[in-house]
Design brief:
This protein has 336 residues and is mostly helical. It has one domain: Orthogonal Bundle (Farnesyl Diphosphate Synthase). It is built from 15 helices and 2 strands. This is Class 1 isoprenoid biosynthesis enzyme.
Length: 336
């Protein structure tokens, strides 16, 4: 990487982080500094029931047990946030948050195997995913450790999902979006609207589903309140989508994977990503995004949606501050 690219790499992350948290505080959301210790302690305290993962066991290159516990712990915290905002009892909160942790771990493993290991072709043929892919059964029956864990998680999560009143059709768009994106690289000729829609579903829909699961697990039957709760989940999904893709922009660029910011660059400069194995200039990409103040506009829009969704909930300001403090701390950690 050239010196210019090193500078743009540092500047982009620092620049985006300053824009984001300045806007976050301006709309009255809590400062992450007062919540980071509580967030890390709470996330690391979570443990998968049944000792599914050995923390000293690497199930695949790039996937260590301790990392998997953190991914589960993050999903569990998201479940805690929704549970507190929706008024669940402690018992309901524990069970709903555990499901969210396992769901988050499952979709993260699916993403890793399809994106980073390019294993979508084999993965969709596994029996547990055939109900979504309608694919032929795989001839090879010996699973890798990562696939084995994913299959177990998926079967477990799906069973509880259906028992709570959902259907497989509720998950089909998520599966389709993940599979579609695994097949489309940035140098390919694509329909950008389809790419953007798939990115949205892949990144925001999991949070909407977690919010809906928590609300229904708490006994919510009122459709209007369910709609508001799902809207909150969706906007939190947009928030993490934005921050995650801002953090991973250069990784995704190098691996040829689509990303929220790279899709906007492609919209603004359609000729930029046309050659396979091309070496891209990071400064050119950040300049394009800055020319239209995309980080500022995007952050403003998402935070406006978030405050609106929070205002629609029937809960106390203390609960909102407590839960959004955890969200702020997690976002700060993601941005590094």
């Amino acid at each position: 990487m050239s010196k210019d690219n090193q500078v743009s790499f540092i500047d982009w992350h620092d620049h985006f982080g300053r824009i984001f948290f300045k806007a976050w505080k301006r709309v009255g959301l809590p400062d992450p500094a007062g919540h980071i210790t509580r967030y890390i302690a709470q996330r690391e305290h979570q443990q998968l029931p049944g000792d599914w993962i050995k923390t000293n066991h690497k199930i695949s290159p790039g996937i260590h047990g301790t990392r998997l516990y953190s991914v589960y712990g993050f999903g569990n915290i998201v479940g805690n946030v929704f549970s507190d905002l929706f008024g669940l009892s402690p018992e309901q909160k524990e069970k709903a948050s555990d499901w969210c942790g396992r769901f988050n771990l499952g979709i993260s493993l699916f993403d890793f195997i399809t994106d980073e290991q390019e294993g979508a072709t084999e993965l969709i043929k596994l029996p547990v995913f055939q109900k979504f892919s309608k694919s032929d059964t795989a001839e090879r029956t010996v699973l890798t450790p990562a696939q084995e864990l994913l299959v177990k998680l998926t079967a477990d999560v799906l069973e509880e999902f259906i028992q709570t009143g959902f259907s497989l059709e509720d998950l089909q768009p998520l599966f389709d979006a993940q599979l579609y994106l695994s097949q489309k690289k940035i140098h390919m000729s694509v329909d950008l609207l389809k790419i953007q829609k798939a990115l949205f579903i892949k990144s925001a829909e999991p949070f909407s589903l977690m919010a809906a699961f928590v609300a229904r697990h708490g006994g919510l039957k009122d459709q209007e309140r369910m709609k508001r709760n799902r809207s909150l989940g969706q906007v939190l999904g947009k928030l993490y989508w934005m921050v995650d893709d801002a953090r991973d922009i250069w990784t995704d660029l190098n691996e040829g994977n689509w990303n929220l910011f790279l899709a906007e660059v492609a919209r603004l400069d359609p000729a930029l990503f046309q050659e396979e194995n091309q070496v891209y200039n990071q400064k050119e990409i950040t300049d394009i995004l800055q020319l239209v103040a995309y980080p500022e506009a995007l952050t403003h829009a998402v935070l406006e949606e978030l405050t609106g969704a929070l205002d629609s909930l029937h809960t106390t300001q203390k609960t909102k501050d407590k839960t959004m403090g955890l969200i702020a701390a997690s976002l700060q950690e993601w941005l590094g």
